[in-house]
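Hey, can you fold this?
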Amino acid sequence: MSNGETKRKGFHKNLYFWVLVAVVLGALFGLTFPAQAAGTQWVAELFINLVKMVIAPTIFCTIVVGIAGLGNLAKAGGLALRTIGYFTVMTMLALAIGLAVVNIIKPGADLHLKFDEKVAADTIKKAQGHNTVQDFVLGLVPKSFVSAFTDGQLIQVLVIAVLVAISLSMMGERGKPVIRALDTLGHVMFGIIKIIMYAAPVGAFAGMAYTVGKFGNQVLGQLLFFMGSFYLTCILFIVLVLGTVAAIAGFNIFKFIRLIKDELLIVLGTSSSESVLPRMLTKLESAGADKSVVGLTIPTGYSFNLDGTCIYLTMGALFIAQATGHDLPLGTQLGLLLFMLLSSKGAAGVTGAGLVTLAASLSAFNDLIPVVGVALIVGIDRFMSEARSLTNLVGNGVATMVIAKWQNSLDMDRFREVLNNPKLADPDDSPVASAEPAAVH
């Protein structure tokens, strides 16, 4: 699509316009008819399941083709180390800023709230067995090759894809036909995703209607203050921390947010950053990042770089401690931060995972913070999931472009052009999504 054609394309033909309309209508429907709106959850889940259906094969193909296409295992290893190193630093910063803000604002101080242990029972049950180092390490490896795909465990798909990519690289010429076949299959998956995205406004409408209709009346009093504190912290993290990182890498954080506005609106409606994972792969590659960097960084980030979830973990834990009258010394808070550095890894980017991860973390400190205290924030967790998912998405997007620049695998001229004219990287118009499979050299 030429620049002239891009400019002539009306707002009514853009995905973000219809998703925004759907989000607004969904919120109004939830406020006006809460009982009926509460029954629309299945529609939102249907849309998310449609996307999740193709995520595992898409990620597998993208990672294998990206890493194998490097043709140099040492280069692939260097990329992986830099990616994990960057994610670890950003996770620590996210946890630390959440800890700092909740200590300054003290949203739970002097509340002395009571909680219903039955409300937290389901979350605590899900969290059991997810708070040890052994569980984390064992969770990296699937029980079988196929189970990684059927169970929807992205981190396990990532492990298999890396192993397959290394094997194909070691095979030399014999492995190239397989790489080309996987590249073709990846394009088929992106074609399916393009079709599914026509239903994005419907999924966003249902997701927002359900959230407002089901939980709107439960957000009261001091809980609103805590939720507002969390949203403010996420904004500060994006503007100050990610904004600084982006500036060092040579791009503007606000222009980048404009670039991914379609994806952000879909996440706002569905409360799931996974709903746009395939689109992010296509868009960031079209924006100038090398396929190998995008293919490794985005999927890895969905398990290892959940900035919004990390902010939520420290703020949620300290809010519960404050609200239940448990004063934690700085040393204990730092111990909790270090523990959450591990427990946050592998948390899926789907609705509700943050609450389960919080419960799993608190269970290790149950003698200091009552794990049943998660009942205090169950009612507002759905609303906080919006901010978690949005922050996670922006964080992983920025990470991809920064690491690509770090690897000398980013076409900065192309990136600047796309930042000034985001439609050039639209997955619906981008040559990346519709091109013939790239030749494997």
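Oh, and this one too while you're at it.
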Amino acid sequence: MVYGAGGAGWRPRLVALAVILAVLTGCAGKPDRRPAAPFVPTATAAHRAIVRMVTSTTVIPTPTAVPATPTLAPTETPPALAPLVTPTAPPPAIDLARAHPNELGEIPILEYHLIADQDGRWSRSWQHFQDDLDRLYRLGYRTVSLQDVIDDRIDVPAGTSPVVLTFDDSSPGQFTFVEQDGKLVPDPHCAVGILDAFVREHPDFGEHATFFVLPAAEPPHNLFGQNQYQKAKLDYLIAHGMDIGNHTYWHQNLATVSDAEVERQIGQAVQVIGTLEPGYEVDLFALPEGAWPRHKELAYQGNWNGIRYNNRAVLLVGASPASSPDRIGFDPLALPRIQAIPRQLDLWLGALDHGVHQRYVSDGDPNRVTFPIGLADRLKARPGEEKLRSPDPNYEVYRLR
């Protein structure tokens, strides 16, 4: 049969057929570039001396099977591959007028001691500790690690505020194991168990806290008590993203002892924790009773029997909220805290929303700092910062890194 004038119409048909065959062959030869199934880590299953001051007074979906990929013959040249990643639209810009960011504001670092059955000067009942977490959540606070504050990598959703939870003296009420169905789990009435349960209900709250421990305090308060589970408890805290800090060997008031004893108290605590957790860096330190050694620099760094310590942060007892790490005057080596007792909590959580004290409110991006234009003179200038064009004339925006 003849197609077209002069019988030449068959050529376009053959060319078209050849193109189709080439495309099919090329598609069959593409290697499988799908990412491997995600790795799902398994959690490692993993209370100290009350200070003399205290005692005295998803299911992963099954991947769909795909046909085996044909192998190219040695003489074949694989066709050029088009990118398989489809570009996604950038996230919508933050509505600054709605989020009201102020990343030069203040951050509450809460200081807990005993978690007990009743409130006291140095204790918080476990029921009221639950209430504290619920109150913080409703007020728009989300937990962050102390390390992230020091590193200026505060990552909470836009419009929310960071809060740091700290616990001094490693008492049993902070962390006790109980057996449940043949497994060790945190007591639901201890701080760790209460925080675990709250985060299961409110995952966006975050499970961040720092425990300033005492390795050699009188039992049952040495490393939370339950001596046979000391390492398991430290394992558990680390596996859940919490930090272990230094509170000296047995809660020694450093203002009353020699320089050598200061170094021993801090260095020996580092040694014990390092023995239980090899390779773990103990570089957060809380001053017992808020007392500085006579030579202040020994709270920052020192050496005991070849055990060197170099603290990134030194925490005080009580006082006030801490400054933003982006604000002039921020000093990680003298961080104030708020004692987590009713009068102090009510005072400061209220003050942070009114008057001179203004709380840190995030813009949602840990790599930027955003604040109202009236606070520009409080920004701590650092190399590498870049001023960005702000989408709202009422705010200034800088890129940190």
